[in-house]
Amino acid sequence: MHRELRLAMRNFATGVCIASTFRDGPDGREHDAVTVNSLLSLSLQPPLVALSLHRDSGFLRDLLASGVWSVSILDIGADDVARTFARGRAERAHAIDTLSTSVGTRTGTLVVDAPSWMECELRRHIEVGDHVMVVGEVVAVGLQERRPPLIFLHGRYQTLGEVR
């Protein structure tokens, strides 16, 4: 069933995002960022979104400890960024220094230069199978004119072309 479900879900197009959070350690704040395609808009009043992260993820542990995260929705020019942040933690840590980011004013998480982004405060988390869904209240939003969105479909990063 696992293999069949994976193949079936390859036919479902999703957006591609970079989620970021941090952990405060003895040497100061350490940021982390990961590629996600599980962003879900839950509610406008109150403004709630969710992410689904593997339960064994170090990123998830940091997010639950900090209680904050940001998510940046990528455009077609960012497929290399998406690939980089889909790698292991050590490679992501090295790549963070080269990523075009700013520090979110409400959460202190890194916001990636992207068409849109949201800063979120954790409201709850729910264990679901081998993942944990984190639900956050959106406390800040940014928008800018950009190229069409990056999507993930059939196991590859793609674009929709011209968006109307």
The rounded Rg comes to 15 Å
Strand order of the largest sheet: 3-2-6-9-10-5-4
Number of strands: 12
Poorly predicted segments: none
Summarize model confidence as the mean pLDDT. Answer: 93
- The CATH homologous superfamily corresponds to Electron Transport, Fmn-binding Protein, Chain A
Name the helix and strand elements from N-terminus to C-terminus, one letter apiece: HEEEEEHEHHEEEEEE
Under the CATH scheme, the architecture is: Roll
**Beta-strand fraction estimate:** over 45%
- CATH fold-level label: Pnp Oxidase, Chain A
**DSSP helical segment count:** 4
Number of domains: 1
Give helix % range.
10-25%
Most strands sheet: 7 strands, antiparallel
| Class by alpha and beta content | alpha+beta
* CATH structural class: Mainly Beta
Distance between the termini: 38 Å
What is the molecular shape?
globular
Architecture overview:
The protein has four helices and twelve strands; from the N terminus they run H-E-E-E-E-E-H-E-H-H-E-E-E-E-E-E. Helices cover 19% and strands 47% of the residues. The chain has one domain: Pnp Oxidase, Chain A (Roll), CATH 2.30.110. The protein has 164 residues and is an alpha+beta fold. The protein starts with a helix and ends in a 5-residue tail after the last strand. A seven-stranded antiparallel sheet has the order 3-2-6-9-10-5-4.
